[in-house]
Amino acid sequence: MKQPLKQHTKQHTVIDSPYGPLTLVATDGVLSGLYMTDQRHRPPEESFGDPDDAPFAETTEELRAYFAGELKDFSVQLHLHGTPFQRSVWAELRRIPYGETRSYGQLADALGNPKASRAVGLANGKNPLGIIVPCHRVVGADGSLTGYGGGLERKQRLLEFERGERAGSV
Q1: How crowded is residue 142: how many other Cβ atoms within 10 Å of its Cβ?
Q2: What's the Cα-to-Cα distance from 31 to each of 5, 78, 104, 161, rounded to whole Å?
Q3: Which of 42, 11, 47 is nearest to 28 (CA)?
Q4: Which of 17, 25, 29, 100 is the most exposed place for a label (fewest CB within 10 A)?
Q5: Do 97 and 140 lie in a common domain?
Q6: Which CATH number covers residue 132?
Q7: Is 5 a catalytic residue?
Q8: Together in a domain, 62 and 91
């Protein structure tokens, strides 16, 4: 007999950041989304669940510390929903040190599949937790800024901020 699919509880809140409003989404009380305004691959608002600040106290505090230049590594628990390959790419993104970048090819190499740079790029673009899972730290093979769901200007500003080249403010 088939078991019914478990219904997940979702909540969301919107917080301010130096890069515009950020919509935080939790699934069963665990952070599962961080979306910027006008972000590519942003799910529809109605999928974010009920407005509720309660699940986001730790995330909000860590983001505040990050934007103040006081936090380099996020420790908040994450609920990452994606294919096994996407989750492996997202795990590798979390290994890129603050203030550094990697190319799509370097990520593919790190995953043991040097020919998968295009697939790495697609998985990177579907990352549901920008900033915390730092997809902005991925650049083209020649170091150029390429594709970022939040827009290339935001990507450049985040990288400059992490390198200490500019304050995180707008």
Answers
A1: 7
A2: 21, 5, 26, 24
A3: 11
A4: 100
A5: yes
A6: 1.10.10.10
A7: no
A8: no
